[in-house]
Design a protein that fits this description.
mainly alpha, ABC transporter involved in vitamin B12 uptake, BtuC, 14 helices, about 75% helix, about 0% strand, globular, disordered C terminus, transmembrane, membrane, transport, ABC_transptr_permease_BtuC, Iron ABC transporter permease
């Protein structure tokens, strides 16, 4: 009911004084709601599904409470793929490439998958939360450096559009982009559902998982692919939104005291959708225009991350 309420609330709020109940036969009002506000609201729902589920999968895979696409540098690596398409298309004079949402998704997915493979490579050699976070910071730093090189040669208008994209926004998506976004999220969700039984087994140890008939190697790759698809689709269309993938799973664990993976998965999806719809509404109530969604998620997510670290009782200090 809360999600449904936030959905209709977002359809009825904006710079123009137009609502579902007052538009009548006004063609302009109808176009504003169904071609601008509705795609924006659907984008918030899709991002609210993709990022928290990706965060949950990574936390379970690495058995690390701080695992998250943004903390591990996966979002930055995914953003690098988007930056390559945006800047190289301008440098090479191929601006028509930007109109292809599949290309943006593919570039974002390749970047996210590359970042995940690097993380997996180091995680098998560094059994440390602090070490994994440092590797994530290095991936993010390397991605930023390469993006900086591309920006140096790109025209100023592309730099401005990329900068706006980094703030995170649900606005401006066409229905064709929403279609691609929906397909990618659906594919990621279907793959992630196949991993839930394996995750339950892995929680009890690899030996027990083997006795349950769990193919550990297959489950790990499915988790990586699902996380990459979900992170890449959200990053490509709404920007590098931070902290949602980390905060939502922990909030669900704290509020609902739920340990069953399947039930936790459903709670994460529901709370993720509600949270993104709430953040979208908050971003639109400011008088001078829409506040970037990344600012809101960082203001809320950063304190949660700090509280997680504090509650772990000197976790990073012990591991260092």
């Amino acid at each position: 009911m809360l999600i449904l309420g936030m959905f209709f609330l977002n359809l009825n709020i904006g710079n123009a004084d137009v609502s579902l109940f007052s538009m009548g036969n006004d063609e302009i009002a109808r176009k504003l709601i169904f071609d601008f506000r509705l795609p924006k609201t659907i984008a918030a729902i899709l991002a609210g599904i993709a990022l928290p589920v990706s965060g949950l999968l990574l936390q379970e895979l690495f058995r690390n409470p701080l695992a998250d696409p943004s903390v591990l540098g996966i979002t930055s690596a995914s953003g690098l793929g988007v930056a390559i398409v945006i800047f190289l298309s301008a440098i090479l004079g191929l601006n028509s490439l930007l109109n292809n949402p599949w290309l943006l998704c593919l570039a974002s997915f390749i970047g996210a998958m590359l970042g995940l493979i690097i993380i997996v490579f180091f995680s098998s050699r560094i059994n440390s939360t602090a070490g994994l976070i440092i590797i994530g910071m290095m991936i993010a730093g390397l991605a930023s450096a390469i993006i900086g090189v591309l920006q140096f040669f790109a025209p100023s208008e592309k730099i401005k559009s990329f900068l706006i994209w980094t703030f995170g926004s649900m606005s401006g998506l066409s229905w064709s982009q929403i279609g691609v976004f929906s397909f990618m999220v659906l594919m990621g969700i279907l793959i992630s559902i196949l991993t839930l039984k394996g995750i339950s087994g892995l929680r009890l140890g690899e030996n027990y998982a083997h006795t349950m008939g769990v193919n550990i190697r297959k489950i790990r790759w499915l988790i990586l692919i699902a996380s990459a698809i979900l992170t890449a689709s959200a990053t490509a269309f709404v920007g590098p939104v931070a902290f949602i993938g980390l905060a939502i799973p922990h909030i669900c664990r704290i509020l609902f005291k739920q340990t069953d993976v399947s039930k936790l998965y459903v709670l994460v999806v529901l709370l993720g959708v509600f949270s993104m719809l709430l953040f979208l509404w908050i971003s639109q109530i400011f008088p001078n225009g829409n506040l970037p969604i990344n600012i809101i998620t960082s203001l809320i997510g950063a304190p949660i991350v700090m509280s997680i670290i504090l509650n772990r009782k000197n976790l990073i200090h012990d591991e260092l």
